[in-house]
């Protein structure tokens, strides 16, 4: 029998109905559509409204669609991995909450926190469970309610982020498709540039931390930008070169943080611009959800055997690239 590989066999996604436009933001703070479009490349981002609604509510809609499209029943699922930095609560994991809401009773479930690289790390993790031969149906989710941790008085971060979720089904195959190679990295020294200052065990929530607005995303944009371009490009080029992938026909699914980062990385890889997946204009940066949202939107254009390089960069720092051959 051939080697067991992990293939994505279906994709579902969901973004909340409500939309926050650049015009809305420019009424709330000193910014403009022109600045946001030229510096970041975002027009709209979707936001989840509603008392008591969290990341799991967005994720559940994505998984429901995935189940419908792939004709999967909740009891068939063996493992659920939810990649997120905006869990419903510290504990239990959002993956457990999602399982409960969808009546998934036969699976083990856990969260992965690798910020904007969450889905990439989750895909690598899920692939190992499948390749072991022990598991046959894994649901991998990237889901965020980023708007719950954004300071809408900070014009440097509030235009960037949005809410959304995507989910994929991962199953074994003995064909030469699925997850074929990867290069994943991290460097915790980069945490100073992108983090949430309070609310964790090192600095628990107090009146002071709330008054100091320390429960929001803190980002030093310029160093993050430079690291993102160089590290995403380094790993993506390595993976492409050692597998002799042709940049004229390889698809590129980059994390959606900034259109200028996407363009710079695509350029360094030599990828034909028609093969670069981009939807940042509509959704903004949905952190762990950007990659499954891309795969969902490009699903109808992808053909079995198409090569895709996924590359991400996020808080941690975390980054890397995966070579995936589309399986259907
Ligand atoms: O997904 C996780 C990884 N995250 C990323 O990859 C994000 C990487 N970083 C970035 O995408 C960019 O650095 C930002 C979009 C965050 C910022 O863009 P920038 O071109 O690096 O702008 P900047 O921070 O250097 O600011 C330039 C100017 C400043 O004004 P002065 O000091 O030159 O007068 C800012 O105050 O732009 C100003 N500015 C704004 N102006 C209008 C910052 N935000 C805004 C805004 N509207 N929203």
How would you characterize this protein structure?
The protein has 328 residues and is an alpha/beta fold. It has two domains: 172 residues, 3-Layer(aba) Sandwich (Peroxisomal Thiolase, Chain A, domain 1); 147 residues, Thiolase/Chalcone synthase (Peroxisomal Thiolase, Chain A, domain 1, 3-Layer(aba) Sandwich). Helices cover 31% and strands 24% of the residues. Strands 1-7-6-4-5 form a five-stranded mixed sheet, sandwiched between helices. A four-stranded mixed sheet has the order 8-13-12-11, with helices on both faces. β4, α4 and β5 form a beta-alpha-beta unit. The protein is globular. It starts with a strand and ends with a strand. The mean pLDDT is 98. The structure holds oxa(dethia)-CoA. The site of oxa(dethia)-CoA has 20 residues, from α2, α7 and β12.
The appropriate CATH architecture of the largest domain is: 3-Layer(aba) Sandwich
H/I helix tally: 10
Q: What is the count of distinct domains? A: 2
End-to-end gap: 21 Å
Please, what is the average pLDDT? 98
């Amino acid at each position: 029998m051939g080697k067991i590989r992990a293939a994505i066999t279906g994709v579902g996604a969901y973004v909340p109905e409500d939309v926050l436009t650049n015009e809305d933001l420019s009424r709330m703070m000193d910014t403009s559509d022109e600045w946001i479009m030229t510096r970041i490349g975002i027009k709209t981002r979707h936001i989840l409204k509603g008392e008591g609604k969290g990341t799991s509510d967005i994720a559940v809609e994505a998984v429901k669609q995935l189940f419908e499209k792939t004709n999967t029943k909740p009891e068939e699922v063996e493992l659920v991995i939810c990649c997120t930095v905006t869990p419903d609560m510290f504990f239990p994991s959002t993956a457990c909450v999602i399982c409960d809401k969808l009546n998934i009773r036969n699976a083990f479930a856990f969260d992965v926190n690798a910020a904007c690289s969450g889905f990439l790390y989750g895909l690598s993790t899920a692939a190992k469970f499948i390749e072991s031969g022990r598991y046959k149906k894994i649901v991998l989710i990237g889901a965020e309610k980023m708007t719950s941790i954004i300071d809408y008085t900070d014009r440097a971060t509030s235009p960037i982020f949005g809410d959304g979720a995507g989910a994929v089904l991962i199953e074994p195959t003995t064909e030469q498709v699925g997850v074929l190679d990867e290069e994943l990295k991290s460097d915790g020294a980069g945490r100073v540039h992108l983090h949430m200052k309070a609310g964790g065990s090192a600095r628990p929530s107090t009146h002071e931390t709330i008054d100091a607005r320390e429960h929001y995303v803190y980002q030093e944009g310029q160093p993050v930008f430079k690291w993102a371009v160089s590290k995403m490009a380094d790993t993506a080029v390595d993976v492409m070169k050692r597998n002799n992938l042709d940049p004229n026909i390889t698809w590129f699914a980059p994390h959606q943080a900034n259109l200028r980062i996407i363009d710079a990385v695509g350029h360094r890889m030599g990828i034909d611009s028609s093969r670069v997946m981009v939807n940042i204009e509509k959704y903004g940066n949905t952190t762990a959800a950007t990659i499954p949202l891309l795969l969902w939107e490009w699903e109808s254009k992808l053909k079995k055997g198409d090569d895709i390089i996924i590359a991400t960069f996020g808080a941690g720092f975390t980054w890397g690239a995966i070579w995936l051959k589309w399986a259907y």
